[in-house]
Amino acid sequence: MPGSLRGGMRGTGAAEAFSAINLRMLRALVLAPFLLLLIAFVLSNPQPVQLSLWPTDVTLEAPLSIAALTIAAVFFVLGALLVWIPSIGTRYRARKAEKKVAALETKLAGYAKAPPGVKLLAGPR
């Protein structure tokens, strides 16, 4: 739909492929150093730590690096959920608005077709 909310300006052919390749290269350039730092962190922190849940006697012994990365991953997922859940309503309203725009575009296209013998005015000149 060229005029709808989903349409937007998009490149074609070679330009779109070039931007996809650039995006992959940029992703690799950002991801590679991060993964190297992550591997260095895991290898340099092998000492075991004892994790316990305070009101209970549950105790777990794990390498420090694994414990830290697990805690970080849990809070990353919780943060993502805190952002994603409120956006559900916004996405619902956006879909509803897109459907309304499509219906209005269809209705407008129906008005543009004049029956034979009817002269449409072009507007003020």
Number of E strands: 2
N-to-C span: 31 Å
Our Rg estimate from Cα atoms comes to: 28 Å
Strand order, sheet with most strands: 1-2
Order of secondary-structure elements:
HEEH
- Percent range for β-strand residues: 5-15%
Mean of pLDDT: 83
Q: Name the helicity range.
A: 55-70%
Largest β sheet strand count, sense and barrel closure: 2 strands, antiparallel
> How many individual domains?
1
Structural class: mainly alpha
Shape: elongated
How would you portray this structure in words?
Mean pLDDT is 83; it is low at 1-8. The protein has two helices and two strands. The protein has one domain. The protein has a two-stranded antiparallel ribbon. By secondary structure, the protein is mainly alpha-helical.
Relevant terms:
125 residues, two-stranded antiparallel sheet, disordered N terminus
Quick overview of this protein structure:
The protein has 125 residues and is mainly α. Helices cover 64% and strands 8% of the residues. A hairpin with a 6-residue loop joins strand 1 and strand 2 (59-63).
Write the layout of secondary structure elements.
Elements: H1 14-44, E1 48-52, E2 59-63, H2 64-112
